[in-house]
Design goal:
This protein has 486 residues and is an alpha/beta fold. It is 38% helix and 22% strand. α2 runs antiparallel to α4, α3 crosses α4 and α7 packs parallel to α8. The termini are far apart. 52% of the residues are buried. The protein binds nicotinamide-adenine-dinucleotide. Nicotinamide-adenine-dinucleotide (NAD) binds next to α7 and α8.
């Protein structure tokens, strides 16, 4: 497949080898019109074993490089992604469906992980201190954890990959990336770009596969794989944690969400509507931090519902490559069906439909921006991660009851608070069981901030000052020498 005169890789990247190029195992579709973009090779168990061999050679080479060298390579990767922004954005839009504008935003976000960790790796502090009783020195050092197995979802095919690859490479690990089958092209392109930036061939492999389970079996069975970092559903995360338990593999999990958004009685109305729209509609609602349940103080409830419905109803839905389109298709037929059935269930049980709700006919996995209020207690949509452009608005009279309802879920990834009183907003934010909270802001992801979930939304954090720690082992060396204690 050719995008902007660039022929995209369709083989597996196993160390320095592009394997099975031209073997057409995994069809990749354009969700805007269901046309076949291209087909790519699917990795099997032998490919996975070979990728581990390559990654272990890559680890031996890469771990010996200086932090300064790794920093410079990552910075080159940042610049290359910026230079190729249009091409990468087009690939993302073609295989994932988001609009080109959003895809450009994703490339910015994704590339920033390289710049952020380029800065971090030269500032990692090993430490030397004295034991309080004076009998030794305490030396603390950090080592790369080893070969890292990275598994990513389709919704942000560039950013979910670089959020793992950047800290892993910064720490000195080698990586094997298994992207989602819906969006392998972005991952393969970014891997090729990384070798251009100076990452040794063997330090990065990419294994799209129709049989994720058999790739995982090989990874978890091999002593040389020391790390799994997964982003995806809680359901699959649980399976990988079970697999990891056997050899006690170091695990980071970025899992599903069910984000509440609270519009408090002292919220600025226009800000609340505008930021709720952003928190809901980014990537057509296919985001783990999308506002899933919108709790609104009774005094704003009706006006807020109508204002949000007016804004959502005015969005232009269409092929994301076209100018003027605000919202693209969903990623595939299953996602479209799931969203439609959640809305149909709610409406059948008595929810009030303010806009949208009718799946268009014709090609493409489209679902219109939809707003529901007066949601009955027994509607499935109250309890399910929607992953689509559907706003679910629920009134509250008692703020504490709203906070309790917001926390009444196994998930704890993101939450949002709308209030014009900062002290009030922060006190509510602190009561929310969520790893990431936005106050008066619908988009808060930032490479410089730690991102991750509480409860069954995950383990560990990506980005921020702590992101690199997910890929390091801390070693303590107790050190004595003659005269040490004097
Ligand atoms: P998914 O769990 O179905 O798949 C994620 C990835 O796991 C894909 O690459 C898939 O091929 C792979 N996979 C499935 N079974 C596997 C196995 N046994 N071994 C190895 N890999 C396996 O999720 P999805 O549908 O791609 O993405 C949507 C989900 O991801 C949502 O629940 C969303 O909330 C979550 N998500 C979370 C974050 C976060 O940062 N917490 C970010 C994005 C998406």
């Amino acid at each position: 497949m050719i995008v902007d005169d660039i022929t995209l890789p369709t083989g597996l990247k196993i160390g320095g080898e592009w394997r099975h190029t031209g073997r057409a195992d995994i069809p990749v579709y354009n969700p805007a019109n269901e046309s076949l973009l291209t087909s790519i090779a699917s990795a099997d168990s032998q490919d996975a074993k070979d990728a581990i061999d390559a990654a272990s050679r890559g680890f031996a080479e890469w771990r010996k490089t200086s932090p300064r060298h790794r920093s410079e390579v990552l910075r080159r990767a940042y610049h290359l992604m910026q230079e190729r922004k249009e091409t990468i954005a087009r690939i993302i839009t073609l295989e994932e469906g988001k609009t080109l504008n959003e895809a450009r935003g994703e490339v910015n976000y994704a590339s920033e992980f390289f710049r952020w960790f380029a800065d971090q790796v030269v500032q990692m502090n090993d430490a030397l201190s004295s034991a309080p009783n004076g009998d030794k020195a305490i030396m603390v050092t950090h080592h790369p954890v080893g070969v890292a197995y990275l598994v990513t979802p389709w919704n942000f095919p560039a950013a979910m990959a670089t959020r793992k690859i950047a800290p892993a490479l910064a720490a000195g690990c080698s990586v094997i990336l298994k992207p989602a089958t819906e969006t392998p092209l972005t991952a393969l392109y970014v891997a090729a770009l990384l070798t251009e930036a100076g990452v040794p061939d063997d330090a990065i492999s990419v294994l799209p596969s129709k049989s994720a389970r058999s790739i995982s079996e090989v990874m978890f069975a091999d002593e040389r794989v020391r790390k799994v970092s997964f982003t995806g559903s809680t359901e699959v995360g649980r399976v990988l944690l079970h697999n990891a338990a056997e050899r006690v593999v170091n695990s980071s999990m970025e899992l599903g969400g069910n984000a509440p958004l609270l519009v408090l009685d002292d919220a600025d109305f226009d800000t609340a509507v505008e930021q709720t729209l952003v928190a809901k509609i980014r990537n057509a609602g296919e985001s783990c931090i999308a506002a899933n349940r919108i709790y609104v103080a009774r005094q704003h409830y009706q006006a807020f519902s109508e204002a949000l419905a007016a804004k959502m109803g005015a969005l232009i839905m269409g092929d994301g490559t076209q100018d003027g389109v605000d919202i693209g298709p969903l990623v595939n037929r299953d996602t479209q069906k799931k969203v439609a059935s959640l809305v149909d269930d709610a409406v059948a049980k008595g929810a009030n439909l303010l806009t949208g709700g009718v799946q268009p006919s014709g090609a493409g996995y489209f679902y219109p921006p939809t707003v529901l209020n007066d949601i009955p207690e027994n509607a499935d949509i109250r309890y399910t991660e929607i992953f689509g452009p559907v706003a679910v608005i629920i009134p509250f009279d008692d703020e504490q009851a709203a906070i309790d309802a917001a926390n009444n879920t196994i998930f704890g990834l993101a939450a949002y608070v709308m209030s014009s009183d900062a002290a009030h907003a922060v006190s509510v934010a602190k009561q929310l069981e969520a790893g990431v909270v936005g106050i008066n802001k619908g988009v808060i992801s930032d490479p410089a901030a730690p991102f991750g979930g509480m409860k069954q939304s995950g383990l560990g954090r990506e980005g921020g000052y702590v992101g690199i720690n997910e890929f390091t082992e801390t070693q303590y060396i107790g050190l004595d020498w003659p005269g040490c204690s004097q």
